[in-house]
Amino acid sequence: MGTITRNFFSRLNFWTSSFLLLVCFILLYVVFLPHNRRFDLTKEKVFTLSAKTLEILKGLGREPVTVKAFFKNDQSGKDELKDLLKSYADYNPSLKYEFIDPDRNPGQAKRYGVDEYGIVIVEKGDKRERVKEISEEALTNALLKLVESHVKTICFTQGHGERLTANKQEKGYGHLRKRLETENYQVKEVFLSHEVIPAETDVLIVAGPKTDFLAEEMDALKKYLEQGGKLLLLLDPSETPFTRLEEWLKTYGVVLGRNVVIDKLSRMFGGDYLIPVVTHYGEHAITEKFNVASFLPLARTVSAAKEAPKGLKITELALTSQGSWAEQDWKEIKKGQVSFEEGDIAGPVSLAVAAEKENSNMRLAVFGDSDFADNAHLYLSGNKDLILNTVAWLSGEEKLVTIRPKERKSTPLLLSPTQQKLVFVVPVLVLPIFFLGSGITVLLFRKRYA
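The structure assignment produced for this chain is given below.
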């Protein structure tokens, strides 16, 4: 009876201890569940957010921030982004995120103006930022722009036949205006002939003027740029030269060609030979990581002067193919019978230039075409990114925060000759012989004492 009692209490003690241990684990889980923490044991801290990101997340406060990622279920990069967003949300619980499949939720995609996969929308209050790159740097920059109270102002000049931002027809800039407003820019129009360039103007855009500027208007442009302004000129080919603009641009090391670029490579893409294809880009913040073609219909050359003025950094942004050239003869262009002749400029030729001045905020970008950004061509290949990147660079938002990507460095294991022999002998010879010997020993033991 005593043995039975001891066995009963022994089992009771075991099950009671097991139950209490399970209860302790459950209580610990409940207590630590709200305090989700991850530990980065990698040497390079690959899974740790940068100090700048943590500072910005701390500055968000308690106001909710919503991140909507428009990805397909099986899209590459989704898991990487989800892991990154989880790190953000763990540090600041006011940041919430969700993934939306645009194919299954077309209404949501239309509401946020999402027209492609892989777009991330970051919202805080009535402010919204759009992110295309999956990286800590891109997301942190978007959050920083939401925290900033200043809204960038883009002014388009009028009075010379320029493109209208309210026009939704093919030649208008309605789509571009909508995209700029989606990027959190404020868009205005200004007449230089009887208005002063607003003091809050962050970028001034001259898009497709049909006539040259008056002397007074040129003075306004000069003054604006000299005071550290940011100017974007989109100048189509014209048989009538823009003398004042051409001479003024030369002072900044920019040469505006009186020609039309012919590119027969565009026929391979189903286009006209008057639509040069840009597949080569200069090394610049505007075209960084740019790997898609752009199409600039009816363009003129815009190139850097052989000798740049002192203190100016000039970069040729967009270059055509080897088979292109700049046609100088307007009579042949009108007839539609062009051929490369003596006097024409052989390709590749430059269609765009960016210039910036040392020790100054002044930035200038000049394109030999305005059609590539109109409603008919904005969404053609890389055109949209090219114009938006240019505006971002001019407004100083191309590199708000620079966060270097963290890479895992390999740590090679160097073995001595003796260690190499041990690595071979132990798993290949010693362990198999040991287990074989153990098995034989157990088998003989069982046969003898069975």
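Interim note for the steering committee: The CA atoms of residues 239 and 330 lie 7 Å apart. The chain has eleven helices and 19 strands.
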